[in-house]
Amino acid sequence: MRSPFNDLPKTALSASYWLFVVYLMLPLSLMMAMSFKDGNFIAFPIGNYTLSWYQQVVQDQQFLSAVGYTVLIALAVTLIATVIGVWIALVIANDAMPAKGVLFALACLPAVVPGMISAISLRLFVSSIDMPTGTNAIILGHVVHAVPFVVIMVLTRLRSMPNNLVDAARDLGADNFIAFIRVTLPFLGPALVGGMIFCALTSVDDFVRTFFLGGYQPTLPMLIFAKVQGGMSPEINAMATLVLIVTSAVGLYAERLTRRSRK
After folding, report:
1. Can the peptide bond before residue 9 be classed as cis, meaning omega within 30 degrees of 0?
2. What is the pTM of this model?
3. Average pLDDT of the chain, as a whole number
4. Which of 100, 132, 133, 198 is most exposed, with minimal Cβ within 10 Å?
């Protein structure tokens, strides 16, 4: 006879999972609900609902300018970090490469360094090379933080790649470059898509490094931070809700595309 106590670990795990989901979703749900409040301040009860805050946000030139600037930086960071990350992953995957463990640890180091420490060190670095704060400095800081995630994803995919694929391409007359373009790069497709999306979302969300490296033109997190300093209003909730919807849609699309590519 099966004891009911045998299902306790599974039940506890399931209950913990749903409690964690509620813990994550409840603050987000409250934030989204407050964005529809017909009032100038965030407070309960909500009372009447309105879409005027969303209309105000999408017509705000400062918000649109910050979104465009943030997307521009994210695109540059994604391109540069992907190229550097793929190159580092290929070097580490090479069996002839000595001290691969040390190289892998150095490549992943920016991902584990606290954001504040990383931002301070990057600010000192750009000052030492006389690079002015602004777009280039922000891109540099975001790339340093994003490269480790590309390295990990690409390296994981490379380790599952059969060696005979590249060998077969070379036997058919392809040199190393052609073999990389025609065989290795398509095989890395799912990892590249995931890594690029992760780089873009990480760049959009990065506040600490942008705060230390930014210039006069604000990114989206900097703009929201500046508005929060002036007092909480449903306009800020509307901005955050729009960002949440877009980033969630991009993340879900990337997950779906990655799964389809793996199949």
Report:
1. no
2. 0.82
3. 82
4. 132
